[in-house]
């Protein structure tokens, strides 16, 4: 009988240890939230952010939550309150538009760390993750200027402050000073019709390469350019497969990887309230697959320029 009681005691102790381990694992998991403008499927930028969030769940064993269609001040405040009340301690805002609201909320919820993208606000518990889009635009400009036959290229952007605009212009002129740059601004990240109309105006001016610098409208513009036998350069995602005959390459921002990086730093206690910048040198921006029409010698030359930029921080027109 003693042996039975002894074995039963061991089994019960094992259950307690297992239960305690599971409880400890559950308690050790923390919750990461993401708020996003529109819906996940609206545009590649949102989809890539969501893929980053899913990676956190799989690789870092954290709980995740997403709140979609968060755009107005009231919706942002409501989403933040919801996440905080549910125990979320790390909140990502997947847009530059969240900077001001996050700055205010970071002062109210000092035990929560806020992260957003491509903005200038920061606080002790507020971090901005930014991409150096100037260099991205520069190398896109070089490709456009190399591949144009009409010496007329175009860029469609949402807002004039986008760094890739100036970078594109500089890259075009570096490659060939005779190439003319046509630019259109539509003042809306999601105005697909406006972007297509801007493209049509540029087409009438004789452009034969287009860089649609807005992820919500880039795919639609690329598809139309392909129908018109005009080259295009992909934006944010690798869009070579959208129209393989038209896309020369893509300027890719790996925002999904930044979710993992920021969360790892948060778990280590090293995520600071600051503006963090990422670029080709960090491999958070890369070029996608080249179109076979892009000459091999130019691909090699461009890759060498990018490698030198990684090493020195200087673009080709700066040395």
Automatic annotation (TrEMBL):
GO terms for cellular component: plasma membrane. Residues 31-313 form the ABC transporter substrate-binding protein PnrA-like domain. InterPro entries: BMP_lipoprotein, Peripla_BP_I, PnrA-like. The keyword Cell membrane applies. Pfam families: Bmp. The keyword Lipoprotein applies. Residues 1-23 form the signal peptide. Keywords: Cell membrane, Lipoprotein, Membrane, Signal. Transmembrane segments: none annotated. It is found in: Cell membrane. It is a lipid-anchor. Belongs to the BMP lipoprotein family. This is Transcriptional activator protein med. The lineage of its organism: Bacteria, Bacillati, Bacillota, Bacilli, Bacillales.
